[in-house]
Amino acid sequence: MLLHRLEAGRPQQSMIVTGLRGVGKTVLLNAFRDVAIERGWTAVDAEVTKNADFADRMSRLTRRALFSLSSTENWKDRARRAAAALKSFTVTFKPDGSIATGLNVDALSGIADSGDMSEDLTDVFIALGEAAGEEGTGVVFLLDEVQYLSSIELEALISALHKTVQRALPITMVAAGLPQIPRLAGEAKSYSERLFTFPRIGRLGERDARDALVLPALELDVDFESDAARRVVELTEGYPYFIQEYGRLVWDNARESPVTLPDVDRVAPLVDEQLDESFFRVRAGRATPLELQYLRAMAELGPDAHMAGEVAELLNRTSEQLGPTRASLIDKGLLYTPSRGLAAFTVPQFDRHMKRNYRLEPPPIRRR
What pTM was computed for the model? Predict the structure, then answer.
């Protein structure tokens, strides 16, 4: 629907898919990329990282998109103007000129050279959208982990997309990030709720979770007894990545088909061990000792969102003392804030990992 409306010259909201880790956001971005390419669109993708230069990344993505529209010798007027705008942008934000290699045009004076990120990125996006329209196609930016954009960077991206929507240009963005993105976008630009849709994905329902486990196995002549499948759905809580890991390890360890409940229970500790090593520990490894204690205290309270004061009480400290610790965990992407005063894990079942692998020091306070 998104690309269809843009192809028809009708404005349409860009999309930011939100959800916890391991629910399939990146898989959806890859699927959207395939759809865009099948429809003849140019798709450029990148994963946002905290320390990468935003202007550098957007310049490289725009350059890649521009060269994908047509070869330089076949550039039409709009494409040459887009190249000139991009050169202005790169000279302004990346003076070494490395990204401008191969553009073979002069920078446009007064276009994308003000030094204001929002204004200049808007100029680049408009020029690129016009070039795509001249070629009878469009450009879609696919960005993962957009929660790592700073407020200035997110504001620039929103402003640039806003102008392309106003002009009904064939340029859009599909992104993915953690659940706090709608709030961050709203704080960056008040009109962001009109510019984006924010579909949220999470755990599968019971029937879908069972199908995700059982149907791929049936294609390989492996069946699950009903209570075995029910047990996997219960243990995974319907999270797709966990279902995938159970399916793989049950397949490797079951003696025969159909898979039975004892087969599942026997493999459960192996799945926990595998998830600890490949999924959880790589994230917990970014935390300091005090941050690990904060996470462990949250796990003691349960898997849901918790007030800062509740966590501080378990650690015999005040919420003010632990404020920087909490902020650092949010900055590292281990926690997010679903609403004011609350924090929750960004990773499903992270509380279980913390309880399996870390002790809470000091011991929990007896709660009245």
Answer: 0.84
